[in-house]
Design brief:
Elements (H helix, E strand, L loop, with lengths): L8 E2 L5 H14 L3 E3 L7 H11 L7 E6 L6 H15 L4 E6 L10 H13 L3 E7 L3 H11 L6 E5 L7 H10 L2 E5 L11 H9 L4 H11 L3 E2 L6 H8 L8 H8 L19
Parallel strand pairs: 1-2, 2-3, 3-4, 4-5, 5-6, 6-7, 7-8
Helix pairs in contact: 1-2, 2-3, 3-4, 4-5, 7-8
Length: about 270
C-alpha cells in the first residue's frame, strides 16, 4: 500500500497482552493499518500479533515513529532497523519523526536527512512528521521536498480543530493524520455530539471519527474492546450533514490534551 489509509488502528498506551489482543482483534474485524511508535514500548507485541494474524504483510500499512533519543544521524537508521526486527518486517510503510524536540541538541535538518536516508535504504516506503507546527513544517518541506513528506500526524478533535495548521497542510498538499480524535473520550459525553449520534442511530465515537474523515483526515483510534474496534470502523459509512458538521465546528475550545514540555513546539 502506498497511500495513507483513512482508517487505522492506534496502539498508544497499549502494553503487553493488551497490545497483542487489540491488534489481533483489530485485524480480525477488518483494520488493515496499524500505528505504533518506538516510545510506546509495544513494537514487538504489534509484530507478534501481525505475524499470528495470517494477514499478508502486503495487505497491511504499518507506521512507526522515531523517538527523540534516536534523532542524530548516527542513531536514526540503526534505531529503525531495531524497530523492524521487533515488528517482524523488512520495511514499514511510514516512518515519522515523533516530536520536534526543539532543544534536544540535534538540528532538525540532520534528523530529517537521516530519515530520508532510511527511506533511501528501503527501510521505510514513506516518511513524515508528527506534532510539527507551521514553521517546522516549512523547514521539513524545504529539507525533504514537498513530495517526500507523507503526513503530519497531529492532535485533532472536535475540541481542538487546529484550523490554521490544517489549512497550511492542505494548501501544501500534506496529508493530515488526526490522533486523539476523541480527546481521551471527553467528546463522547458532549451533548451536541450525542444528539447528532442519536439522529443517525450512531455512537458518539462514530460521529467524532466521521467528522474527521469528512474533513479529509486519516484517523487512528485505539481500543482494547473488540466491539468498540468494530463499531469505530463503521464511522466510514456514517455521512454527516452540513448542519452536523457546522454544529461540530462550533465545539472548538483549544482543548489540547498532549503537549509534553521539551518535546512540543510553539503551537500555532
Amino acid at each position: 500500500m502506498s497511500h495513507i489509509p483513512a482508517f487505522g488502528l492506534g496502539t498508544f498506551r497499549l502494553q503487553g497482552q493488551a497490545a497483542i489482543d487489540s491488534v489481533r482483534n483489530g485485524l480480525d474485524v477488518g483494520y488493515r493499518a496499524v500505528d505504533t511508535a518506538q516510545i510506546y514500548g509495544n513494537e514487538a507485541e504489534v509484530g507478534e500479533a501481525i505475524t499470528a494474524s495470517g494477514v499478508a504483510r502486503d495487505d497491511l500499512f504499518l507506521t512507526t515513529k522515531i523517538w527523540v533519543d534516536h534523532y542524530s544521524r548516527d542513531k536514526l537508521v540503526a534505531s529503525l532497523k531495531d524497530s523492524l526486527k521487533k515488528l517482524h518486517t523488512d520495511a514499514v510503510d511510514l516512518t515519522l519523526i515523533h516530536w520536534p524536540a526543539p532543544n534536544n541538541g540535534v538540528p532538525l535538518e540532520e534528523t530529517l536527512s537521516a530519515l530520508a536516508e532510511a527511506k533511501a535504504q528501503g527501510l521505510t516506503r514513506q516518511i513524515g512528521v508528527s506534532n510539527f507546527n507551521i514553521d517546522l513544517m516549512k523547514q521539513a518541506l524545504a529539507t525533504l521536498g514537498k513530495d517526500n513528506v507523507a503526513t503530519n500526524q497531529i492532535e485533532l478533535s472536535p475540541y481542538l480543530q487546529n484550523r490554521k495548521l490544517v489549512s497550511f497542510l492542505q494548501q501544501e498538499g500534506v496529508h493530515v493524520t488526526s490522533y486523539m480524535t476523541l480527546a481521551y473520550g471527553k467528546v463522547l459525553g458532549d451533548p451536541v455530539i450525542r444528539a447528532i449520534a442519536e439522529r443517525h442511530h450512531a455512537t458518539p465515537a462514530q460521529v467524532a471519527l466521521a467528522w474527521a474523515l469528512k474533513l479529509g483526515y486519516a484517523v487512528i483510534p485505539s481500543s482494547t474492546k473488540r466491539e468498540n474496534l468494530a463499531s469505530n470502523l463503521l464511522a466510514q459509512t456514517l455521512d454527516l450533514t452540513d448542519d452536523d458538521m457546522a454544529q461540530i465546528a462550533a465545539l472548538e475550545r483549544n482543548g489540547r490534551e498532549v503537549s509534553p514540555e521539551g518535546l512540543a513546539p510553539q503551537w500555532d
